[in-house]
Amino acid sequence: MSKTVKLELPILLPGAPDASDACVGRLISLLRITEGIERAHVDEAEGDPRLCIHYDPEVLSLAQVRRAAQQAGGSISARYDHLVGWVEGVRHARH
Questions:
Q1: Cys-Cys with 60: which of 7, 25, 42, 64 at CB 3.0–4.6 Å?
Q2: Closest CA to 7 of 78, 67, 85, 59
């Protein structure tokens, strides 16, 4: 029987602006190939989006699941950076 843990996305991916960011997809992909993790997805039912991880407790402990998520988030954050801001004077997408 699988267990579930929900983790806050801003803690795992501090630079990601929202749950639709490509880095969230990268994080989910990395977690899905981890042995013992059966499913990973974003749960937005409670308002704030959280990463929901379903795992087999006979293969991974809760601490190992948290560590795997933090390591995956850290490696993605180290590789990709996010720049969010406003630009003035742009009239067209090519500018």
A1: 64
A2: 67
Query: Are 40 and 53 a contacting pair, CB within 8 Å?
Result: yes
Chain center to CA of 42: 8
Asked if residue 13 lies in contact with residue 59, where contact means CB atoms within 8 angstroms, the answer is no
Eight-state DSSP code of residue 40: E
Q: Is residue 71 a contact partner of residue 64, using CB atoms and an 8 Å limit?
A: no
**How buried is 42 (Cβ within 10 angstroms: 0-12 exposed, 13-18 middle, 19+ buried)?**
middle
Q: What digits encode the pLDDT tens for the residues 41-95? A: 999 887 788 999 999 999 999 999 999 999 999 999 888 876 666 777 777 777 6
> Token match 């590789």: residue?
79
The model's pTM is 0.80
